[in-house]
Amino acid sequence: MSATHDPRALRDAFGAFMTGVTVVTALDAQGRPIGFTANSFTSVSLEPPLLLVCLARRSRNFAAFTGGHGFAVNVLAEDQKELSNRFATHTQDRFAGVAWRAGPHGAPVIEAVAAWFDCTLERVIDAGDHAILLGRVQAFDHGAANGLGYVRGSYFTPRLAEEATRTASAEPQARAVAIATRDDQVLLFEDADGQLRLPAFDIPQGEDATLASRLREATGLPVVVGFVYAVCGHGHTRRIVYRCELGRGTCAHGVFLPPEAIALERVGDEELRGILAQYVSESALLPQLPTRQLE
């Protein structure tokens, strides 16, 4: 497939690569902390110690980051989704209420992150509609927390996967729920009374049926089950919510809606309505941009 003629397909292909999530920080010319959420981050070299992160030219802080003396990369812990969302929105003061300190070389270091790297700016490299910030690591530290993950436009965490495994093995009948998408639109089932619901299936222990096969039977579409998005409920109402991707073809049951067009008040299940509302919010905040920057 030619990426030149199909940027949407290229974006989706980039989105299949699982990454961590970081908040990149610096001080502006007035000494005020600035930052943005990004997962276009990678280590480059141990000798010398180098890393890079990509910054969109349209960023409101482009001049400050490319013209400053350095920056910090804060690798978010798996319980810091709220921080990722905050630094991905266009709020006036992203640091309001955020615990941080000046790193050894001056850039803001956020408290309780999985790891941080305080860098001097080694070089700015032109990269189309982005710039690559090449940083030389001057100081760093890390803790025991797992990092926050990101793939196909959504977060994932190792802790949720572990909890889902425990739930599936401990509960005699776990209910699997799908946030199933195609072309960024969400599949919803509509009941006779007009209520909307996410596809959900009881999968008792010992059965060969899986969420993929049940969803394929219901829709007639190819199904790929992805990561665990949430675990909710109690006792026999315990539910594991998965992110799923649906393939091409005519859908036998259900309707596809863009996240922003979903009438959440029509989702009767309060708990799943909250989870779907979270997904809708995150899908607006975290677009799958070509270089995976989340600002």
Task: Give a description of the structure.
The protein is α+β, with helices and mostly antiparallel strands. Helices cover 21% and strands 39% of the residues. It is built from 6 helices and 19 strands. Strands 3-2-6-9-10-5-4 form a 7-stranded antiparallel β-sheet. Strands 13, 14, 15, 16, 17, 18 and 19 form a 7-stranded mixed β-sheet that branches. A hairpin with a 4-residue loop joins strand 4 (41-45) and strand 5 (50-56).
Task: Give the key terms.
single chain, 295 residues, alpha+beta, seven-stranded antiparallel beta sheet, elongated
User: What is the H/E order?
Assistant: HEEEEEHEHEEEEEEHEEEEHEEEH
Broad shape: elongated
Q: How confident is the prediction overall: mean pLDDT?
A: 86
Which segments are poorly predicted (pLDDT under 50) over 5 or more consecutive residues?
A: 288-292
Strand line-up of the largest beta sheet: 3-2-6-9-10-5-4
Please tally the helical runs, counting DSSP H or I stretches of 4 or more residues.
6
Largest sheet: 7 strands, antiparallel
Radius of gyration: 21 Å
Report the strand count: 19
Structural class: alpha+beta
Q: What percentage of residues falls in helices of 4 or more residues?
A: 10-25%
